[in-house]
TrEMBL record:
Listed name of the protein: COX assembly mitochondrial protein
Keywords in alphabetical order: Chaperone, Disulfide bond, Membrane, Mitochondrion, Mitochondrion inner membrane
Protein purpose: Required for mitochondrial cytochrome c oxidase (COX) assembly and respiration.
UniProt family annotation: Belongs to the CMC family.
Compartmental location: Mitochondrion inner membrane
Main localization, broad class: mitochondrion
Any Gene Ontology CC annotation: mitochondrial inner membrane
Length: 105
């Protein structure tokens, strides 16, 4: 069984979908004896390739969104702590010294 075949999602497989539907509707015995298996196998392969292509596209989009988000985070950090986060490093050193002196008392 194949998933719901949406036209916009599997438009590259439209001809194969039509061929399999036509084969199934022509004569019942063809479907029973497996005479539509070639069309079904071709459709399965096409749907698999379409799914993989969709996944690759989604991965590219998520990577781009992640890159954009990291750039925004970096910009926020630079606005808050200065370029190269100098202020943040100074605060961390101060905290480390403060925590180090408290532990030795």
């Amino acid at each position: 069984m194949h998933p719901q075949l949406e036209a916009r999602r599997f438009n590259s497989c439209y001809e194969l979908i039509q061929a399999l539907d036509k084969c199934h509707q022509q004569e019942y015995y063809k479907r029973i004896f497996g005479l539509c298996n070639n069309e079904k196998e071709a459709l399965s392969q096409c749907l698999h390739e379409a799914r993989l292509a969709g996944e690759r596209e989604a991965i590219k989009q998520r990577r781009q969104e992640r890159k954009t988000m990291e750039e925004k985070w970096k910009k926020i950090d630079e606005e808050e702590y200065g370029e190269d986060a100098i202020l943040k490093k100074i605060i961390e050193r101060y905290q480390a010294k403060k925590n180090g002196s408290n532990g030795s008392e």
